[in-house]
Each structure stands twice: as structure tokens, then as C-alpha cells.
TrEMBL record, chain A:
Family indicated by similarity: Belongs to the ABC transporter superfamily. Macrolide exporter (TC 3.A.1.122) family.
The keyword Transport belongs to this UniProt entry's keyword annotation: yes
Gene Ontology terms: cellular component: membrane protein complex; plasma membrane
GO molecular function: ATP binding; ATP hydrolysis activity; transmembrane transporter activity
Residues in ABC transporter domain copies: 5-227
Name of the molecule in the record: Putative ABC transport system ATP-binding protein
CDD domains on file: ABC_MJ0796_LolCDE_FtsE (cd03255)
UniProtKB/TrEMBL annotation, chain B:
Database matches in Pfam families: FtsX, MacB_PCD
Entry's localization field: Cell membrane
Keyword Lipoprotein assigned: yes
Record-given protein name: ABC-type transport system, involved in lipoprotein release, permease component
Family recorded in the similarity comment: Belongs to the ABC-4 integral membrane protein family. LolC/E subfamily.
């Protein structure tokens, strides 16, 4: 299997006024193409910081990050913007859709920034919304959708541009059980059908049970890395 | 870019109430600015027009010594040649030769210092439209015996009216004191009450006989077909008649030239003040809009929307908001100006009558130069751009990873 993400001795130290805090402490991990990984751990264990680092949203204080063989830890900020745009899909806890755009426009948005053709955007956005079960909500604005539906649009948006991997930061935290299961079904299906690498940070047992690999972080270090058969 | 335009436009309507208030504030500000500027412009233009049309004309020709000594004995030489020249010059719309004598006007009750102007009624009417300013009695008639026109202010001061007898006292060309009785044929009123109080008009031949010479011309006032030709005309005649002093309206009355400039300067000053005040309101609105959207802006930057695009988006939002208000304000402003530019706004009832003491008319006709229609949107866009810089910088300085988790 192809390695999509590789981190070597990854470190993120915050120098606050009392004492330096090692949010991520020497993490060396590899993520393979098509993996469905859950990163778990108590609050303050470094899950979000780790996701920010491999998502190019934050810079490490030590170590290296390779995405598909390209080292991103040394990239300039402007290069990282472009790198994220072309390689990484994001799903956020609070959905974070653009409220003034319709579901279809939201899904097309990243492709638009990537300067894809109009026809391709139309086709792919419609296809993705169909895949997440929202073919009847193409022209609905976020405030006309339920929380679960909004999160499904966010998933469709993250996957529409065919990123190398998708980072989801506690995507089910704000969802009721039914919506959470529904979302997980969709993500599991897309993971299998489109062979997309999914990495979740989560506290949610429902997500952990679906993951193929569970990495547990404690105090910024990997305490457990198990592959679930 | 099209999507950015759509998002920006839709973004300003997220909080319709706030945007509406801001748009109305911009509209009201610009409307007020346009009204104030158009009234100032109208006032200045009216003063300029009445000053040039009724008092100074486009140019005046004198004997150089007459200007220094104000003595009627300094007449314009080569009068015949100059008259022929002016009659045949295509640039000249009208001209009037005048006798100018300083003297006293006496009535049974009062004496007042005046400038006595001996005129040819027909030529004067074509040059300064004096006949149109008669508010009581009649204009000068050649057949009448020693008719005189006096201004309204002077008539009120000396309690005279058409038919009243007055005595004009002045020095003749020999320096001897001369007095003559005249009968008021009419009362005139211009926009300048001081002019009305200090000038009387008589027939040129009437004053000439008392001065001791039939035809005395101390001043020639000229009106051209095109005001822009004034300087060129003055140069040409100055080279042909070096012995005469030829002065343009701006040399005759630097005050009028100042008014002419002041109209457009006032417009710019008023507009700048209003736009500056609006800029702070706009900046506040845009800052609030950015602060309310920190999580969304963080998301946009996280998924790869460049800082440049985020900056442009905020800039477009400010521009849309400003332009919507500006066009509304311009529409209302120009409509109001259009309504009142022929009708005028009468300030007579609110103390505006005193304006005539300074040469202004109490009825103001607002005016806006067409060029303002271009200047205004440009200034508004510059304001929008300048105003959006701080909120836009605030937006792009956000750290995506932190912003996206903002509660």
C-alpha cells in the first residue's frame, strides 16, 4: 500500500509564560492510502495539534511531515495554502459551511478555487451530494438544512475535489445518534468506494468502533496504535 | 472572481438590518453633501453670473489714468475706430460705452454719494440687461428730459420713486462744479444692493452736456459670445490699442474669480468631510462583520482560500455596501437638485434677504457640474477601498487553525 502521510519525530512545543508545553512530542507515524483512522485521547492529549500539523495549518517546532513524499514542514505559508487546496479535505466539528451559498455551491467551492471547469464542478458536486443522500437539497442554503445534513454537505465538499486524504476534527460531536450513524455510513462507503484516506480526531465511541485503525495519544505522544481487523 | 463577487454581494445581506442602516447613512450623507455642495455652487455661480453680467461684463476698456484718478476728463481715445472694430468683431456679443462720473445725488431730505453712469440705453440693455432689472417705473427713454434710473436701495434711502426730482452734483471736465436736475424714470434692482445704492444711470448725451463735451466715453464694457475667449481677446486688443487699459472680469473683480473657484472647492471640502465621517461608520460595520465571521474565515483559509482572495472578498463587500448607498444617495441627491435647479430655494423668509448686501440673490438655484457625477463615484470607491483595508488585514491575519475553532 502507498504511504500518504509520514511524520518523523514530529514535535510541537508551545512556549507559554510558565513552562514549555509539548503538545506533540516525537510522533513518528505513517498513514496508508485508504486507511480509516481514528485518533483518540483525552482532552489536551494533542489530537487537534497533530491534525493541524499534518493538515498544514500549523508548523512543527521539530521533525518532518511528508505528504505523498513531499515535505510540507518547510513550506512557506503561501505554498501551504495552495498545498491544502489541492491535497487535503477538511471536515470540521461545527460544519462550517458558507452560509450564503447553496449546498451545491458549497460543494463546488473548493473546485472553483482549484479552477476546475464549470461542467466538471457541476457534475462532481451533484454526484457527491447524491452520494451523501442530499440530491433533493442541491439548492438549499445551510440554514435550511439540519445539523446532520449540513455535516453531510461538509463531507461532500471535502471529498469532491478528490483530495489525497481527509482530516475530520470530531465530525460527529454535534450530531445526534441517528445523524452520526448516517454520516459514518456515508464516510465508510466513500472510504471504500473512492479509496479515500480518512483521519478522524474523536472522543466518540461510535466513530472508534467503525475505524480500521485507532491511535491513542496521551500527553502528545502515541501511547497505542492498533489496527482493527 | 465571479464567485467572489456573488459571495461578497450575498455577504452584505446576511445582516440586512445592519447593511440597510449603513446604506441609508451613506445615502443620507451623500444627499446632504450633494445638496450643500450644489447650493454653494449655485450661490457662487449666481454671484459670478450677476457680477459678470450686471456689473463688470467680460472685459472693460479705460484710459489708464482714469483707473488711477477716477476723473471723467480721461476719455477713451480712438473711440470711433474702437467702436467700428468692436461692431465688426465676431467674438463680441454686445458692448456699451459709458460716461463715468463720481458725484452726489441730492433730494429734499438726503444727499448720497453715487457713481453717475451715462449710457446708451439700447447698447446697455444688450450688455448688462439693465432694462430687465427695472422693478418700478420705466427704462431710460431718449425722448424724456433728463431721465435717471436709481437703484432700489438708493430709492428707499432717499425716499424717491419714479417721477421724483433729484439733483446730481459733479465736477465737469474743466474741474468746475456742476449741478443738474433729473427726474427718476425708473427704479432698478440687481442682486447686489450695494451696487444699487451707489450707481445711477442717465443718458450719455444728458450728462455730456453738463460735463462740457457731447460725447464723453470713459468706459467700454464688452460681452463676448464665449467667456473662454476673454484672455485671448484681451491680448489681441491690448496689442492693437497699447494706449488703453484692457482688463478682464477676473482682473476687474478678483473676488468674482475667487467665487468661481470657491464653488468647486466647497464641493470637494464638503464631500471629503462627509466621506471621512462615513468611512468610520463603514469601518465599524466591516470590522463587526469580520469579527462575527472569524470561524468561517478560518474555514475558508483552512480549505485553501488564499489570503489575497479573502482580502479581495472583504474589499468587495465594503465596495458593494458603499456603492449601493452612494448610488442611492446620488440618485436622490441629483433628483432633488434637478427639482430645485429651476424652481430655486427661497431663503428670503429665513433671513436670506441680507444675502443681497453681499451681492447674492436670496433665491438659490442649486447646481451641480456634470463632472461631479464622475468625481463622486471615484471618491466613494477610494473611500470604500481605504475603509476596507483595516478589516481586511484583520481577516487575513487570523490563524486558520485557531479561527476555525472560535466559539
Amino acid at each position: 500500500m502507498k504511504t500518504v502521510i509520514k511524520t518523523t519525530n514530529l514535535q510541537k512545543i508551545y512556549n507559554n509564560s510558565v513552562a514549555p508545553v509539548k503538545a506533540v512530542n516525537n510522533i513518528s507515524l505513517e498513514f496508508q492510502e485508504g486507511e480509516f483512522t481514528a485518533i483518540v485521547g483525552p482532552s489536551g492529549s494533542g489530537k487537534t495539534t497533530f491534525l493541524n500539523l499534518i493538515g498544514g495549518l500549523d508548523k512543527p517546532t521539530g521533525g518532518e511531515i511528508y505528504i505523498d513524499g513531499t515535505e510540507i514542514s518547510t513550506m512557506k505559508e503561501s505554498e501551504l495554502f495552495d498545498f491544502r487546496l489541492r491535497n487535503i479535505g477538511f471536515v470540521f466539528q461545527s460544519y462550517n459551511l458558507i452560509p450564503v451559498l447553496t449546498a451545491k455551491e458549497n460543494v463546488s467551492f473548493i473546485m472553483l478555487l482549484q479552477k476546475r471547469s464549470k461542467a466538471e464542478m457541476e457534475q462532481r458536486a451533484t454526484e457527491m451530494l447524491e452520494q451523501v443522500g442530499l440530491s433533493d437539497k442541491l439548492n438549499s442554503r445551510p440554514n435550511q438544512l439540519s445539523g446532520g445534513q449540513q455535516q453531510r454537505v461538509a463531507v461532500a465538499r471535502a471529498l469532491a475535489s478528490k483530495p489525497k486524504f481527509v482530516l475530520a476534527d470530531e465530525p460527529t460531536a454535534n450530531l445526534d445518534t441517528e445523524s452520526a450513524f448516517n454520516l459514518l455510513d456515508i464516510m465508510e462507503k466513500l472510504n471504500k468506494e473512492e479509496n479515500i484516506t480518512l483521519i478522524f480526531s474523536t472522543h466518540d465511541q461510535r466513530v472508534i468502533e467503525r475505524a480500521g485503525r485507532v491511535i491513542t495519544l496521551v500527553d502528545g505522544s502515541v501511547s497505542k496504535d492498533e489496527v482493527i481487523s | 472572481m465571479k464567485t467572489l463577487l456573488i459571495i461578497s454581494w450575498r455577504n452584505i445581506w446576511r445582516n440586512p438590518q445592519r447593511s440597510f442602516v449603513m446604506i441609508v447613512a451613506i445615502m443620507a450623507g451623500l444627499w446632504g453633501g450633494l445638496m450643500a455642495a450644489s447650493l454653494a455652487q449655485g450661490l457662487m455661480n449666481q454671484r459670478f453670473r450677476t457680477g459678470v453680467e450686471q456689473e463688470y461684463s467680460h472685459l472693460q476698456i479705460h484710459h489708464p489714468e482714469f483707473i488711477k484718478q477716477d476723473n471723467a476728463k480721461y476719455v477713451i481715445d480712438k473711440r470711433e475706430e474702437l467702436s467700428n472694430h468692436l461692431d465688426n468683431d465676431e467674438l463680441v456679443a454686445a458692448w456699451s460705452g459709458r460716461t463715468i462720473v463720481s458725484g452726489m445725488m441730492g433730494t429734499a431730505t438726503l444727499t448720497s454719494g453715487v457713481t453717475i453712469k451715462g449710457i446708451d440705453p439700447e447698447m446697455e440693455a444688450q450688455t448688462t440687461f439693465l432694462d430687465k432689472n427695472i422693478i418700478d417705473g420705466s427704462y431710460l427713454e431718449e425722448s424724456a428730459r433728463n431721465p435717471v434710473l436709481i437703484g432700489r436701495s438708493l430709492a428707499e434711502k432717499t425716499k424717491t420713486r419714479p417721477g421724483s426730482r433729484i439733483v446730481l452734483t459733479f465736477q465737469d471736465l474743466e474741474g468746475e462744479l456742476a449741478s443738474a436736475s433729473f427726474r427718476v424714470s425708473g427704479v432698478f434692482q440687481t442682486a447686489n444692493s450695494y451696487f444699487d445704492e451707489t450707481n445711477v444711470f442717465v443718458l450719455k448725451q444728458d450728462i455730456g452736456q453738463y460735463l462740457g463735451k457731447e460725447m464723453v466715453v470713459n468706459e467700454i464694457a464688452i460681452v463676448l459670445n464665449d467667456l473662454d475667449q476673454v484672455s485671448e481677446f484681451a491680448r489681441t486688443y491690448a496689442s492693437k490699442y497699447p494706449e488703453l487699459e484692457i482688463r478682464t472680469w477676473s482682473q476687474l473683480s478678483p473676488q468674482l474669480a475667487f467665487y468661481n473657484e470657491l464653488g468647486s472647492t466647497m464641493f470637494m471640502i464638503i464631500l471629503m468631510i462627509i466621506l471621512m465621517a462615513l468611512a468610520f461608520g463603514l469601518m465599524n460595520t466591516m470590522l463587526m462583520s469580520v469579527i462575527e465571521r472569524i470561524r468561517e474565515l478560518g474555514m475558508l483559509m483552512s480549505i485553501g482560500m488564499s489570503k489575497r482572495r479573502v482580502f479581495v472578498m472583504i474589499l468587495l463587500e465594503t465596495t458593494f455596501l458603499t456603492l449601493t448607498g452612494a448610488f442611492g444617495g446620488m440618485l436622490v441627491g441629483y433628483t432633488t437638485v434637478h427639482i430645485f435647479q429651476n424652481k430655486g430655494i427661497n431663503l428670503g423668509n429665513v433671513g436670506g434677504d441680507s444675502l443681497t448686501d453681499f451681492g447674492f440673490e436670496p433665491i438659490i438655484y442649486p447646481e451641480l457640474a456634470p463632472s461631479y457625477g464622475l468625481i463622486l463615484p471615484i471618491l466613494v470607491i477610494i473611500t470604500a477601498f481605504a475603509t476596507s483595508i483595516y478589516p481586511a488585514l484583520k481577516a487575513i491575519r487570523l490563524k486558520p487553525a485557531e479561527a476555525v475553532r472560535q466559539e
